[in-house]
Give the backbone structure.
Amino acid sequence: DTGVSQDPRHKITKRGQNVTFRCDPISEHNRLYWYRQTLGQGPEFLTYFQNEAQLEKSRLLSDRFSAERPKGSFSTLEIQRTEQGDSAMYLCASSLGGNSDTQYFGPGTRLTVL
Amino acid sequence: DAKTTQPTSMDCAEGRAANLPCNHSTISGNEYVYWYRQIHSQGPQYIIHGLKNNETNEMASLIITEDRKSSTLILPHATLRDTAVYYCIVRELNSGNTPLVFGKGTRLSVIA
């Protein structure tokens, strides 16, 4: 257990529905990252927060995706109008910052879109 | 794209050392080498990282060649629980907002 928690661990939804995932980072970590991982591939970066500010977004983050970190603590990732191609594991990581900035990952949320 | 090259898969006998190679021939002077592993259906787990010196912790040792173009992760006494996908990643120093860029990693199977 790294101290990063994610909820839910599994989500099954129908195409077209909206889903929201939550990530609670390690308490003193000010950086929070979202990644997506599809079967057989390594995780791919989606977006990154420094405290409450969203500083970087990947081109993978389409307009249907939105992420927030309102108080610089937990973060949510929402997917609107889900598509079957959104089926993946969504991973959250947090880090303290500094020169080496090691990221610690949560267990992930596995999304299945039917 | 990932800046590292790793073998797709490796086997190791239980109790023996597992040596996982990684090529990063285009690494720049301010990039660290990180290793993570991912056990099936879990999030990636941080193992170790280094810049140019060899590093050791309770999980593994990291050997970086003098020219920094390759490295080896060593699990000294592999157990069945070390079966996982191992990712070698290079990442720039002093740029904490740089995401990790994962390749496909090496699938290590530890065999009893």
